[in-house]
Specification:
- The chain is an alpha/beta fold and 468 residues long.
- The chain contains 16 helices and 15 strands.
- The chain has a 9-stranded mixed sheet, sandwiched between helices. Strands 12-11-10-13-14-15 form a 6-stranded parallel sheet, sandwiched between helices.
- Bound molecules: GDP-alpha-D-glucose (GDG).
- The site of GDP-alpha-D-glucose (GDG) has 22 residues, from helix 1, helix 12 and helix 13.
- The site of GDP-alpha-D-glucose has 22 residues, from helix 1, helix 12 and helix 13.
- This is Trehalose-6-phosphate synthase.
Length: 468
Amino acid sequence: MSRLIVISNRVSVPKAAGAAGAQGGLAVALNSALRENRGIWFGWSGQETEEFTGHLDMQRNDGVTTATIDLEPQDIEEYYNGYANRTLWPLFHYRIDLTEYDRNFGEGYERVNRRFADSVRPLIDQDDLVWVHDYHLLPLGSMLRTQGVKNRMGLFLHTPWPPTRLLVSLPFHERLVESMLAYDVIGFQTEEWLGSFLHYLEKEMGLDIGTDGCIEYQGRRIVARAFPIGIDYAEFREGAQSAEADEAHDKLKASVRGRKMLIGVDRLDYSKGLGERFESFSRFLADNPDQASQVVLLQIAPPSRGDVASYQQIREDLERKTGHINGAHADVAFVPIRYVNRGYPRRQLAGFYRAAEVGLVTPLRDGMNLVAKEYVAAQKEDDPGVLILSQFAGAALQMDDALLVNPHSIEHVSETIKRALTMPLAERRSRHEKLLQSVRDNDVIHWRQEFVKVLFAGALAQGSAQDA
Ligand code: GDG
């Protein structure tokens, strides 16, 4: 079995199941793959250093080896806060109004990708499979190729891929996309993002796409495919049935005193549509005065990327909106929106999901969205809640038994909240049963097995071609 080298911006060191602040599904799935394949997970430590030395901090925890490097403050500013989170993230989420182009960001991005390449290169053995993650590291593969790495290399993009007409607004977009063609496998969350990528290759680079989605480029064959990510279903179900989840569920239920509850759980990010969600809820309260004191929205929104101005802005906007809506609809003994800027351990989160009659997942654009899947997995099968899901989340393509909404339409979301709150039990059950099956069948283990299989299949083909 080939060894796996996983490379991502940050590394998640394995923790015991159920540990406080235990890692998310992606980290669990990658760690289990690394354990099986005796692999290494490489990335940034999250720490700063005065001067970059390339020193590798190697650790072995719970059967997984991690290797991390520290970055300079300028690297963090230009690569992470800059090109990754002020240029590519907004652009990939269709927000060219928020996209900032700065030559220093581009240079910092290339410099850090080269630092990653230089540092990880000595760790790669001949038969290893290399699996790179996300928009932070698009050119890494081509830098490794320049250094003579011939291994099979795959890239998985966790975000959407934007339409060509938006992407061409990025200076040097050709160079960025061409660098991605150094990978052997390029994975996207959905057929939609894959289609946009292939459209770019055809229109902007004049490449032919084979009927099987394969691309011939400079004598190499590249597979571009959709691999929809999922949650670690078994781990999440187990957590949802734990004593910790029960306790969180019971406490929350007691605190709402018989009112129905809607829940949102999102990193505090403008792509998640939180402002529009709050306005829709406010519209629902205004249009249904009889319901107004009977329903609570719990929004958990841990802060994220706080060094970036657009994130400070969204935080201020939401604080203002929450104050405004609560001021208009609260009573002495009742506040309609509980807006919480902190994170909770996963098992408690599972209890919160179970306590909510409605899961409100309304991003304006999202690569996949795992919260939608977690909400479904946490429900009681005999009396499940209803999932309201944005049509613009990648998850909508797999979860059409949810109530799909256009998050920009305040009226539509408001009416859908009413529909969800009054949905008969039989319909809730039948929708939930189908959703649960899809979440179970398309879990994160299936996702990484599919990706690694395609990456490895190419290695076999390459090997037999060399043998011939
Ligand atoms: C990117 C893509 C894609 C949130 N609050 C708490 C908490 N969370 C966890 C959730 C969920 C995860 O964070 C968020 O995942 P999402 O998929 O919803 O969104 P992104 O963070 O934007 O992730 C996305 C994903 O990558 C995977 O490919 O689906 O489209 O944007 O697991 O539960 N976890 C805990 N406490 C919290 O308060 N423990």
